[in-house]
Design goal:
Strand content: 5-15%
Helix content: 55-70%
Largest sheet: 4 strands, mixed
Number of domains: 2
Distance between the termini: 40 Å
């Protein structure tokens, strides 16, 4: 398996425009200019795309908005704010690439041991976004990972790249997601860093303070944690996909 770290300027731009946080304070100036000049395109490319469809002729408005969006993107890419965003992301890409190069042999060894799966014999594209904006997204259809995040603890990006690889290799179920977090966010982190404890990897560790989805996932992690620890002691020829099936059968019985 090989990672190809890249910056896609369009993905970088749209990701940054759609975030509540800012990569740097001046970024809001670009957001305001684009919103004032191209409001429908701004809505279409961020989290309020439904606004484009509320007129009397939504399909015509969508067509017109798509035409306007070409101008929107061209202007945004030429802006000084985007040039700064791109330059800072380039520096971050070098950091991520160096960290992965340093850790990949050990990380992949641990990954294979914990999951019981073989890593894919192909190149995975990693689209890097700005480190001050949270991004961790697996796109199996494109064999691609979107990644950008502050380095909250040692080898943070290595651990979460392995997290996203697991999403490329497995089905998107709540049980598997919880297992992935036990495997990567916890066990891989501890083994790679040679220190740490389970369930201490987030800044917010109390489930009551989490958004509903993450609260439910956190609770599920703790519920299936005994099965995970048993699996680590004796896999009995199983892999993590087999473990998921076993856990789901046991949960249904109860």
């Amino acid at each position: 398996m090989k990672f190809q770290f890249k910056i896609n300027k369009y993905y970088l731009l749209i990701h940054a425009l759609g975030q509540a946080d800012l990569p740097f304070p001046e970024w809001v100036n670009l957001q305001n200019r684009l919103w004032e000049k191209f409001p429908k395109s701004f809505y279409l490319l961020t989290f309020h795309s439904e606004v484009v469809f509320i007129g009397d002729n939504p399909l015509r408005e969508l067509t017109e908005t798509c035409q306007e969006t070409k101008k929107f993107i061209r202007e945004a890419l030429k802006s000084k704010e985007f040039q700064r965003l791109y330059q800072e992301t380039e520096k971050y890409l070098s950091f991520i690439k160096n960290q992965w190069t340093k850790n990949k042999k050990e990380a992949i060894r641990i990954f294979k041991e914990l999951s019981g799966l073989e890593v894919p014999d192909k190149t995975i594209t990693v689209l890097i976004t700005h480190p001050k904006l949270k991004n961790g997204f697996a796109m199996p259809r494109y064999n691609t990972i979107g990644w950008g995040h502050s380095e909250d603890w040692k080898n943070y990006s290595t651990v979460y790249l392995c997290h996203e690889i697991m999403h490329l290799l497995t089905k998107n179920t709540k049980t598997m997601h919880a297992l992935i977090q036990l495997m990567t966010d916890n066990e891989l982190r501890i083994r790679l860093n040679k220190k740490g404890r389970y369930f201490t990897y987030k800044k917010i560790t109390q489930a009551t303070k989490m958004p509903p989805y993450f609260k439910e996932l956190w609770q599920l992690e703790k519920k299936i944690y005994p099965y995970w620890k048993e699996y680590l002691k004796d896999k009995k020829g199983r892999n993590i996909i087999d473990l998921e099936k076993e856990i789901e059968r046991k949960i249904k019985k109860h």
